[in-house]
UniProtKB/TrEMBL annotation:
Transmembrane residue ranges: 168-191, 203-225
Transmembrane among keywords: yes
Domain of life (superkingdom): Bacteria
UniProt keyword terms in alphabetical order: Membrane, Transmembrane, Transmembrane helix
UniProt region (Disordered), positions on chain: 1-41
Protein name per its UniProtKB record: RHS repeat-associated protein
UniProt biased composition (Polar residues): 1-32
Species classification: Bacteria, Bacillati, Actinomycetota, Actinomycetes, Streptosporangiales
Record keyword Transmembrane present: yes
Length: 228
């Protein structure tokens, strides 16, 4: 089990606490057992996307979108156009579930909603190493990898086009890389130029060093412009 996989989740307080025991595999959480002994199993494809769930002896097939958010759950053998549960989301993952028939109980057995993340009772999402707050639309912990310009930002403030299921977004890392490339390029360019000045001669700047400097400046400026 890696550091982002939880063995259990406890919600509530005092006498109202509920405990869920999680079974993890390389593909993600495969089952959840509640404190009353009821167990729900989750079927996933080789990439970890949820294909369906089995609860109360009945299988429900899942439909997901490009960001792995669950769109619907339909009882196996029924029309997918008339699901038991249909989900809608705001850009930052506020979830609204529309149920039909026994869909209320089905929705209660499926915590995997926005981007396939585990949704807590208060709407917060467990995204790998961190939690995304439903109230602030930001992570509640700093980026442990220190790769973001803003250590609490979710998906570079662009949740429609980007997602961060691990809580370790690396998109901003390219901005930092740009400055390092720029520094290397300038250092390399300054070396032959210093020789030329010191000797009174003419030393041509290597083309690749000049190119590295230009690329570094471009990427670095882009990083500043896109930081959120």
């Amino acid at each position: 089990m890696n550091s982002s996989q939880r063995s259990g989740i406890t919600q509530g307080s005092g006498d109202n606490q509920t405990e869920h025991t999680l079974t993890n595999t390389a593909l993600g959480i495969s089952s959840i057992e509640q404190d009353d002994g009821d167990r729900t199993r989750y079927v996933r494809d080789p990439e970890g996307r949820m294909l369906g769930m089995i609860t109360g002896g009945q299988r429900y097939n899942a439909a997901t979108d490009a960001q792995n958010s669950t769109l619907a759950l339909a009882e196996d053998g029924t029309e997918s156009t008339d699901p038991d549960v249909a989900y809608d989301y705001t850009p930052y993952g506020q979830t609204e579930a529309t149920t039909a028939g026994s869909g209320g109980a089905v929705a209660g057995s499926n915590p995997f909603t926005y981007t396939g993340a585990y949704e807590l009772d208060n709407g917060d999402k467990a995204l790998g190493h961190r939690y995304l707050s439903q109230r602030t639309h930001r992570f509640t912990q700093q980026d442990p990898s220190w790769q973001e310009n803003n250590l609490y930002t979710y998906a570079e403030c662009d949740p429609i086009n980007k997602s961060d299921p691990s809580g370790l977004w690396v998109g901003c890392a390219v901005n930092v890389t740009g400055f390092f490339v720029s520094a290397i390029g300038y250092a390399g360019a300054a070396w032959p130029l210093a020789i030329a000045i010191g000797t009174g001669g003419a030393v041509a700047m290597p083309a690749f060093l000049f190119g590295a400097a230009v690329i570094g400046v471009g990427v670095g400026v882009y990083g500043i412009a896109t930081a959120c």
